[in-house]
Amino acid sequence: MATATARLARPRMNLWRLEWLRLIRTPRALALGAVFVFFGLLEPVLTRYQSQIFQHVGNGVRISFPPATPAAGVSGYVGELSGTGLIVVVVVAAGAFTFDSRHGLATFLRTRITSFCQLLAPRFTVNAAAAAAGYLLGTLAAWFETDLLIGAPPAGAMLGAMLCGAVYLAYAVAVTALAATIVRGTLGTVGIALGALFLLPIAGVYRPISNWLPSALANAPVDLLNGTHHLSYYLPAFAVTAAAVAASLAIAVLRLRLREI
Amino acid sequence: MPNYLLAAVLANSGKLPSGLLFALVPLLVLVVALDVYCLIDLARAKSVRSAPKIVWAIVILFVSAPIGALIYLFAGRDRDGDTARHDADATRQQASAGRRDPLVSQEPPAARDCPPIVTTIGLTKDYGGAGLFDVDLRVPRGSVYGLVGPNGAGKTTLLSLLSATRRPDRGTISMDIGHNQVAVCPDVPEFDRWLTAAEVVDLARSLVAPGTDCQAVAAALGTAGLADSAGRRVGGFSRGMVQRLGLACALVGAPELLILDEPTSALDPAGRAEMLRLVAAMRGRRTVIFSSHILADVQRIADQVGILRDGRLLYQGATRDLIDTYLEPSWLVRIAGDPAPVAAAMTGRPWATKVEPAGADTIRVDATSVEAGERGIPAALAACGARQVSCEPRAADLESAFLALTGASS
């Protein structure tokens, strides 16, 4: 008993610490960091040496590429916002939001909380922060490699790209939270969330609303680095994304309240 | 690609531009570090999921890095998976639990006539013909209320409605306590496997009783017989230990109402006896509603019983009254010596409805009521100077009452 008591003198548990432990005691934090940093380190190298690589693997066929630019070096990485990186973020977040898929766990949580905001707030915040941190680490890695191999990318555009990416990933986590209230299983949640996130850019082909959609933020880093647009161009997208995050979480809370287990 | 890069770097290290070599160092360090981490983790793991260790080692080493390592982390890593060896621990802890249970009162006050803590009126949950229909439940404060019935009778549905994890189609539920004074333990509790037992109970404490100190967590774990496993991760627990952990989570907030769904379903005989002792000891201090298929358990600890069948409450009231009402009480009395004179002496008694031999030294005595038999048999034995070896109730149990009640209603 004395040993147990001594062990329990550590910082107390709460729903915020639960999410932190979920990140660090499972492969989630490692996967988020590793994936983004890996691509952050890899993409500038591939961009800089793509001619040599293709020459090496192309059985003597020579392919000419335009000279690598700093923007191109970082652009390859930021493309992960709508690729592997996004998938990993959604999978990690889905694991936290699909508590209703396990009846015993759902009973434990639902019979003790006073509101579903109490349950969703830490899950959303910690997962969005972890996704943003992973993305920022990867961006810093890509920045370092690009600077080393190709040249320094514009610092202002890089910071703008980080902001856009972090906000877009927070949106992806909110969409995952909403998807988890439509189905109970993790696989179904991942499928619905990714479906919504991948299909939304299709609406962007309609020009008048293209810079209003959250998906515009996923493409913003490339345009910012190329100098196509300034950060202020994406202000409507920021506003819509913030509203979409709030709406997704609010609807998720309502749906969870109506759901029986 | 990284494997290719690594091979290319090693093969052409003398010919590659120095800038590329310098740029590749962090990437290669990351990939190699992840692979090394996974290999060390694999070597230290007591068990892994999905495939043998050697297969995971091959995946980590030969599937394109770092994909192989990531696959292992998500699909193979299982540092908690050594469940089987904990069964012995569970039995040991059951024994230790009996020595320390500060959350449980040892006083056995009667709560039979107390005002109800839970009342339902016309409670209905219709699943297209199955479910629960017009249930008027009345649970006295401080009682241990056993809910029995065959599979599909509606026990879990009723407990879910009382727990507010489902909503009734019709009817009302009145509880004379606040939301945070109700604790629920499902038949199969589940927790995040990477948390320790102490963390799980502490999380429950933080949600229902944030003002209490950490001693409450230690006390709840001790009561449930998990004091020695407080620092162990739940992923390595047996099902019985998880059920005990569910009870610890329920107790940590010192609830007034405890709802237990099949609390002994995963426990071995020793664990079951210990759980029943814990529940019985709560009588008078807390109200306990529990469901069970094991009627002997209900008879042993429940002072109130509700019998459900096909979603309807056939009976509720004192367990003793049910047994008295639905059974013709009968005893087997074993005598040292010839039982014939004793049988003859009892035959004329007004409370005895039937007295007959049931063996060389045994007679069967049927009485007009349980109370009449319990008073009359000892008095008759004393009056004729017989030496009694034993006197056992015959078929006077809840199971017989249950069968009589449900059979009569079919």
Task: Kindly list the characteristics that best describe this protein.
heterodimer; A: 261 residues; mainly alpha; B: 410 residues; six-stranded mixed beta sheet; 15 helices
Describe the structure.
The complex is a heterodimer of chains A (261) and B (410). Chain A has 261 residues and is mainly alpha-helical. Chain A has helices at residues 2-7, 15-25, 28-48, 50-57, 70-78, 84-97, 103-110, 116-149, 155-179, 186-203, 207-210, 215-226, 235-258. The longest helix of chain A is centred in the middle third of the chain and has 34 residues, at 116-149. The model of chain A has no long low-confidence stretch (mean pLDDT 89). Chain B contains 15 helices and 14 strands. Helices cover 42% and strands 21% of the residues of chain B. Chain B is of the alpha/beta class. The interface between A and B is large, with 51 and 61 residues.
Our count of helices of chain A gives: 13
Largest sheet of chain A at a glance? none
Largest protein-protein interface: A-B, 51 and 61 residues
Overall residue-averaged pLDDT value of chain A: 89
Q: In percent terms, what proportion of residues of chain B is strand? A: 15-25%
**Biggest sheet overview of chain B:** 6 strands, mixed
- Helix count, DSSP H or I runs of 4 or more residues of chain B: 15
Count of DSSP strands of chain A: 0
Radius of gyration of chain B: 31 Å
Percent strand of chain A: under 5%
User: What sequence of helices (H) and strands (E) makes up the elements of chain B?
Assistant: HHHHHEEEEHEEHHHEHEHEEHEHEEHEH
- Major sheet of chain B: order of its strands? 6-7-8-4-9-10
**N/C terminus separation of chain B:** 72 Å
Spatial shape of chain B:
elongated
pLDDT < 50 runs, ≥5 residues of chain A: none
Distance separating the two termini of chain A: 36 Å
